[in-house]
Amino acid sequence: MQYEYQKQQTTYGIAALVLGIIGVVLALFLNIFSIPLPILSIIFGYLARKQNDGLGLVGIILGVVAIVIISIIWIIALAVYVSVSGML
User: Fold this and answer.
1) Is residue 16 one of the residues assigned to a domain?
2) 1 belongs to a structural domain
3) DSSP string of 55-72?
4) 79 near 86, Cβ under 8 Å?
């Protein structure tokens, strides 16, 4: 007899995945409003990884990518603001 091993997907993993995807999309368009979503994605991803769910890792990665995108956009916006206003 052959048994197939199927990983259990938890609601934390699914929530981390969904929040990560929405966080990345919103980070590109509505930068300031998307800050809580990647943080929640990382938290839910961590909780899902504790339950051995593979979607948790994807949620963590997407959350980190969204935070990096938000940070880059803010750095660029600050640099443009400083160069235009002549503050330095």
Assistant:
1) yes
2) no
3) HHHHHHHHHHHHHHHHHH
4) no
Which of these, 31, 20, 27, lies nearest to 61 by C-alpha position? 20
Note whether residue 76 is domain-resident.
yes
The pTM of the full predicted model, rounded to 2 decimals, is: 0.81
What does the pLDDT read at residue 33?
A: 73
**Nearest Cα to Cα of residue 44 among 77, 73, 22:** 22
> Within 10 A of 52 (CB to CB), how many other CB atoms are there?
11
- Within a domain: 67: yes
Q: How many CA atoms lie within 13 A of 64 on its CB side?
A: 8
- Number of domains comprising the chain: 1
Domain with 49, as residue range(s), is 11-85
Give the Cα separation of 41 and 44 in Å (integer).
5
Q: If pLDDT is split at 50, 70 and 90, which confidence band does 30 have? A: confident
